[in-house]
Specification:
The complex is a heterodimer of chains A (118) and B (117). Chain A is mainly beta. Helix content of chain A is 0%, strand content 47%. Chain A is built from no helices and eleven strands. In chain A, the strands form two sheets. In chain A, strands 2, 4, 5, 6, 9, 10 and 11 form a seven-stranded mixed β-sheet that branches. The termini of chain A are far apart. In chain B, 0% of the residues lie in helices and 50% in strands. Chain B is built from no helices and twelve strands. The chains are: A mainly beta (118), B mainly beta (117). Chains A and B meet through β4 and β5 of A and β6 and β10 of B.
């Protein structure tokens, strides 16, 4: 099966500019996650969607970050305006727990988008 | 809040030798899941092994095995017969069970493993 797709892979912007990242989860996966991975740290959840509804966005800096998942499939994460501290890899992951598959609980990750804010 | 701690920022191992990566976690839950993920340079994160907290038997996947000590809240990863392709960042992660709904992973800061030929 096709994996989680993300684009762009790399992006360099100046502070105060805006940027958007796109994620296409594995077909049929109901849950989609956006994680932020700052250099030298583990990924941290920004937002979680279940179909097209938000389950958890408690760690999303809502004054500058926004995300949507139209039609419960693709998702877009936007930053406006960007700050230097937003430099990180933004990972998208998806999952669909299915009884009996033995793959319960697994999250599949995309390759990430590396954002550099100068 | 749940936290995951990896105290070894970097480790190295000779090819064909064995290495153990450490992880401790803090939680008030009695049922949960623990994972080790591998993130090769510029490549996506993949699941290496997982452990259900209610299982006493340590999980094993080929050359990868874990030492799960629930009372000590410790979850170490042992890589046997290390190969050059094992070089990567390794993240320990925690997740509460599915019946609470799909839940995100809580990650440690990672351990960078180098394999020396």
């Amino acid at each position: 099966e096709a994996g989680v797709a993300q684009s762009p892979r790399y992006k360099i912007i100046e502070k105060r500019q805006s940027v958007a990242f796109w994620c296409n989860p594995i077909s049929g996966h109901a849950t989609l996650y956006w994680y932020q991975q700052i250099l030298g740290q583990g990924p941290k959840l920004l937002i979680q969607f279940q179909n097209n509804g938000v389950v958890d966005d408690s760690q999303l800096p809502k004054d500058r970050f926004s995300a949507e998942r139209l039609k419960g499939v693709d998702s877009t994460l936007k930053i406006q305006p960007a700050k230097l501290e937003d430099s990180a890899v933004y990972l998208c992951a998806s999952s669909l727990p299915k009884a009996g598959t033995g793959r319960l609980y697994e999250q599949y990750f995309g390759p990430g988008t590396r954002l550099t804010v100068t | 809040a749940q936290t995951v701690t990896q105290s070894q920022p970097e480790m190295s191992v000779q090819e064909a030798e064995t290495v153990t990566l450490s992880c401790t976690y803090d939680t008030s839950e009695s049922d949960y899941y623990l994972f080790w993920y591998k993130q090769p340079p510029s490549r996506q994160m993949i699941l290496v092994i997982r452990q259900e907290a209610y299982k006493q038997q340590n999980a094993t996947e080929n050359r990868f095995s874990v030492n799960f000590q629930k009372a000590a809240k410790s979850f170490s990863l042992k890589i046997s017969d290390s190969q050059l392709g094992d070089a990567a960042m390794y993240f320990c992660a925690y997740r509460i069970p599915f019946f609470s709904g799909n839940t995100p992973l809580v990650f440690g800061k990672g351990t960078r493993l180098s394999v020396i030929a």
